[in-house]
Amino acid sequence: MWKEEDNKLVRQFEFKNFVEAFGFMTKVAILAEKMDHHPKWTNVYNQVTIELTTHDAGNTITERDRELAAAIDELLA
Amino acid sequence: MWKEEDNKLVRQFEFKNFVEAFGFMTKVAILAEKMDHHPKWTNVYNQVTIELTTHDAGNTITERDRELAAAIDELLA
Amino acid sequence: MWKEEDNKLVRQFEFKNFVEAFGFMTKVAILAEKMDHHPKWTNVYNQVTIELTTHDAGNTITERDRELAAAIDELLA
Amino acid sequence: MWKEEDNKLVRQFEFKNFVEAFGFMTKVAILAEKMDHHPKWTNVYNQVTIELTTHDAGNTITERDRELAAAIDELLA
Known about the structure:
By secondary structure, chain A is α+β, with helices and mostly antiparallel strands. Chain A has one domain: 2-Layer Sandwich (Gyrase A, domain 2). Chain A has 2 helices and 4 strands, in the order E-E-H-E-E-H. In chain A, strands 1-2-4-3 form a 4-stranded antiparallel beta sheet, covered by helices on one side. The longest helix of chain A has 17 residues, at about 20-35. Chain A is globular. Chain A starts with a strand and ends with a helix. The interface of A and C includes residues 29, 32, 38, 40 and 45 of A.
């Protein structure tokens, strides 16, 4: 589901409504801070787009991006 | 699942871990503020206990408590 | 601080770190749902960009956008 | 401000309203998960009570409680 675009991992998520979308975002926020790796993400109502790249590696996709992507996917499993 | 105890609606929730519990709490918080009716609630790790009563009605259970309880249940449906 | 750009109210916010940024976002999320008016917003680490427009009014800036903008500003007062 | 009661560090916090209280709780939640040390806490409207103890140390107050307490205080500095 994650696509590689311009050296970023990108995935779009759609929820039933804003409340569900923001509940998801809160869980992602906690994981991101714990892994010390933060997404660029955008939300509009029930839609969330997450972009992952590693600034410290010259904005390329690294293992840290793949680990955060996997942890996010796990939330929805 | 909600029990009436001492003029309160009380329900305990258990989640897989803290992240799931707090994601749920965030959704409940948004609903509670929207309904202008706030719980007394306690969290320890993966457990959340919610108590609902209506202060403006002399701490009795009213329709407002039943509506918030139903909205919370809906989150888990 | 809010600028009008392409029929949207836009403002950028900067915080000390991600934790402060997401704490702010949670407060905005609660207000947005309460006002039934949701932003398009983007976060990267300590930065939050909020865009407000009213879809039901043909994506123009309306009183609803100004009210949410004022409520957000109030959070930072 | 933190008191030692029954082998727990306990502090009560009061905010302007529920939105401010829950914004604070979200920041504490992120820190708690990051430190892998979770509070027992209770919220009613604008009030938050946090209790810290270390289960793995026989429910006594340890350095982990003091570190989380300090990180929480830092949020309010």
